[in-house]
Amino acid sequence: MSTEREIESTQGTQQSPVYDEPEHVTQQVVLNEKASMDASFDKENTVTADGEEPTFAEKTSLRHVAENLPLSAWLVAIVELCERFTYYGMSGLFQNYIQRPLDGSQGRGALGMDHQGATGLTTFFQFWCYVTPILGAVIADQYLGKYKTIVLFCIVYMVGLLILVCTSIPGALENGAGLGGFIVAILIIGLGTGGIKSNVAPLIADQYKRKKMAIKTIKNGERVVIDPALTIQRIYMIFYGCINVGSLSLLATPYMEKYIGFWSAYLLCLCMFMVGTLVVTLGRKFYVVRPPQGSIITDAFRALFIMIKNRDMDAPKPSWQTERHGSSSVKWDDHFIDELKRALVACRVFAFYPVYWVVYGQFSSNFVTQAGQMQTHGIPNDLMQNFDPIAVIVFIPVLESCVYPILRRLKINFRPITRISFGFVVASLAMMYAAIVQHLIYSAGPCYGNPLCDASVVDGTAYGNNVHIAIQTPAYVFIGVSEIFASVSGLEYAYTKAPPSMKSFVQSMYLLTNAFGSAIAEALTPAAFDPAIMWMFVGLACASFLAGLIFFAIFRHLNAQEDEMNALDAEDYMPEAPVVEERRASHAQ
């Protein structure tokens, strides 16, 4: 089975890995060019910075630091920024687009499907966008590789956007093309989103090569430990920061919706997505691109079947089978099974995430409707969503530059499991605050428990109850802060715990939890009416808080195993002879 494995030196020295690099350097993996291959490995995956690897005592006593990101990682981040600009700038308008009628009696609208219909379709779109990453992951890991898969699904995405733009122009809406065009568009866009999302997150981390800790002396003479795990954490913090910079498209698109029309906002999103597609294609030579690994997903499921059949996690190992049966017929090695077991640990951790995503999804659906039930003072109700990414953009540098370094200097390890648990608790605060705001709305006139009633209509337009829209801000801020801990740590965990050949697939498993969250939210749609929605917010607050506590109680022991599990990627292992011959033949062509 083809995986990212190392080929043993003919002289019995330290093994050297074979990495499938971009096409212009693929000659380095040919076996008869060993010297060139070793030189490339020393340059790209240097074990140490000062010529020495840290001892156990140094690992525990010296300060751990992260490295800077390579240029190619920044390019991938820009691509994600453009895609998220499109996704949020477009989907953030869906609630109004679907809920409000075309006649403008409740502000600009299109389809007129009321609150529950809008929440249902918006939630379905979120669900669909996080189911399709499985398809993108299988195509990337088994057939095309991450880069080609991203390019392919960029084209699919643009087709969906074009349909959305064309069917949202006034003439198309007046002739009844709006609903059909919208459904077709979100199906195609969701497919494109899935193919990109499952691959762009692991692709950015692939740009960083170091696998082992190293000693480095910084400018002030202090000896520190370069920690790859901290660099991966930094990569995903910056990656998530770019996501939220992109999502600030909601500063522009609600005003375009209000003063020009939905079609203009969707057109802006299409143009921005085209910019991202150009970056990903024109920057091709800068990326570290790993090839697909053949039947890796099939082999993983086959290994899982053997585990279940024998009720032993080590049963698929060749050594286990040889010991008990005298021979082994599998084509993988023991190291692959160790990696697969580590991936299963990550998937167990992800099991709690649907609860978090139900809470997170409220900011683009029910929070938008809630904002429309208050006095907006000329502010579009779907503009308030921007306080979520603004909170992320503000707090990420604070955490990365101040809080986390201080904790490391104090030898306080804020491990992923702890960060995720904390994120769940902060998310519960967002829901509790939203419930309080909803109570204030129901306590204010003129409509009290029935916002937007006939008593609120002035000059043909319904206005919200006498509560200022700005009071909703902390709910979005709490959601944003929770993302930094729960969502960013989830991305990090999905990458670091996945086998090298299954990065996209494990990432898709993480994203799938978002789909499960959307499915739960879809089931809660019947409760999205006044005044029941206030109690739905209370229930979600309790669920998120309890999930965070239970999650920490169950998985806190994994914090102690973090370094050990991350070290698996740095271990040396040898591919089977058929793989070596296959690679030699492919590169010779």
TrEMBL record:
<keyword id="KW-0472">Membrane</keyword>
<feature type="transmembrane region" description="Helical">
    <location>
        <begin position="390"/>
        <end position="407"/>
    </location>
</feature>
<feature type="transmembrane region" description="Helical">
    <location>
        <begin position="419"/>
        <end position="442"/>
    </location>
</feature>
<feature type="transmembrane region" description="Helical">
    <location>
        <begin position="475"/>
        <end position="496"/>
    </location>
</feature>
<dbReference type="Pfam" id="PF00854">
    <property type="entry name" value="PTR2"/>
</dbReference>
<dbReference type="GO" id="GO:0005886">
    <property type="term" value="C:plasma membrane"/>
</dbReference>
<dbReference type="InterPro" id="IPR000109">
    <property type="entry name" value="POT_fam"/>
</dbReference>
<dbReference type="GO" id="GO:0071916">
    <property type="term" value="F:dipeptide transmembrane transporter activity"/>
</dbReference>
<feature type="transmembrane region" description="Helical">
    <location>
        <begin position="508"/>
        <end position="529"/>
    </location>
</feature>
<keyword id="KW-1133">Transmembrane helix</keyword>
<protein>
    <recommendedName>
        <fullName>Major facilitator superfamily domain, general substrate transporter</fullName>
    </recommendedName>
</protein>
<dbReference type="InterPro" id="IPR036259">
    <property type="entry name" value="MFS_trans_sf"/>
</dbReference>
<feature type="transmembrane region" description="Helical">
    <location>
        <begin position="150"/>
        <end position="173"/>
    </location>
</feature>
<keyword id="KW-0813">Transport</keyword>
<feature type="transmembrane region" description="Helical">
    <location>
        <begin position="343"/>
        <end position="360"/>
    </location>
</feature>
<comment type="similarity">
    <text>Belongs to the major facilitator superfamily. Proton-dependent oligopeptide transporter (POT/PTR) (TC 2.A.17) family.</text>
</comment>
<feature type="transmembrane region" description="Helical">
    <location>
        <begin position="235"/>
        <end position="256"/>
    </location>
</feature>
<feature type="transmembrane region" description="Helical">
    <location>
        <begin position="535"/>
        <end position="555"/>
    </location>
</feature>
<keyword id="KW-0812">Transmembrane</keyword>
<feature type="transmembrane region" description="Helical">
    <location>
        <begin position="179"/>
        <end position="205"/>
    </location>
</feature>
<feature type="region of interest" description="Disordered">
    <location>
        <begin position="1"/>
        <end position="25"/>
    </location>
</feature>
<feature type="transmembrane region" description="Helical">
    <location>
        <begin position="262"/>
        <end position="283"/>
    </location>
</feature>
